[in-house]
From TrEMBL:
Presence of the UniProt keyword Transmembrane helix in the record: no
Gene Ontology BP terms: methylation
Organism: Actinomadura napierensis
GO molecular function: methyltransferase activity
Keywords, in A-Z order: Methyltransferase, Transferase
Lineage: Bacteria, Bacillati, Actinomycetota, Actinomycetes, Streptosporangiales
Pfam families registered for this protein in UniProt: Methyltransf_25
PANTHER family tied to this protein: GERANYL DIPHOSPHATE 2-C-METHYLTRANSFERASE, ZGC:194242
Name assigned to this protein: Class I SAM-dependent methyltransferase
Domain Methyltransferase: 57-150
Domain of life, source organism: Bacteria
Transmembrane region(s): none
InterPro entries reported in the protein's UniProt record: Erg6_SMT_methyltransf, Methyltransf_25, SAM-dependent_MTases_sf
Amino acid sequence: MTYEETGVGRTIDRLLREHPGLDSDGALDDLDQFHIGGADAVDLLIESLALAAGDAVLDVGSGFGGPARQIARRTGNHVTGIDITPAYVSAARDLTAGSGVRDLVRFRVGDIAAFHPDPPFQAAITMHVQMNVEDKAAWFAHIARCLAPGARLAVWEVCGPGQAGLPWPMPWSLDGTDSFVVTADALHASIGQAGFTTTEWTNETAWVRSWIARTFADGLPDGPVLPMLLDDGYTRVINYATALTDGPLEIWRGSFVRAG
Ligand SMILES: C[S@@+](CC[C@H](N)C(=O)[O-])C[C@H]1O[C@@H](n2cnc3c(N)ncnc32)[C@H](O)[C@@H]1O
């Protein structure tokens, strides 16, 4: 199965020791954003969330916490991340402890299906998680249940005609057995079935291709990078970039409102 790295905590401890400046805001961007498009993609979602002061934000499948910390840093809003992988939640907490947003961001281990926040959140994001979820309508319905009527949801998602021919391992699946990639139309329909109305549903594949060309023009950035935290990380990232650049995968950004 994917997401079973055993050395994440040790690697993060070592990187924080070797690079003391990593604790400063934004310095982790090449390490802690576990999706294509990095911090720039999170900025696109923040814009569509249109947060007001005091809005509480939920990050579903928060990984190493990069998106949650970035939202708090940019907006000053409180963000709660939830993720089913205990080692990733522990890593997200470690990376937050020395950051300037430690009082705004928290992480919990858990399944969104069993999360019943009271009060509900005013906004949510989810980035690069639904590919691991087979019953997408049920999963987005669990997210809807955690949100107040009228709350916003922003998503950043991998879509495609299917997964035959994808070069495994990919960032979200080592061998394809826990991957459920569907077309943009099918994903959009599942989000609608879960009780969300669409504000925006945009194919961002061209934007992503240009981001990849710009970001990796001279190879990987210097310093700590995401593949250092993942089993077979470099192969996964290269396979993914190739499937987005020359293959059938697409990236879609969505902005939705939870129906009242
Ligand atoms: C590719 S990472 C994306 C992490 C983060 N959203 C980001 O963009 O940096 C996918 C994350 O989804 C989490 N995940 C997978 N299935 C999940 C589920 N059913 N509920 C919550 N989190 C899940 C994994 O533990 C992993 O942290």
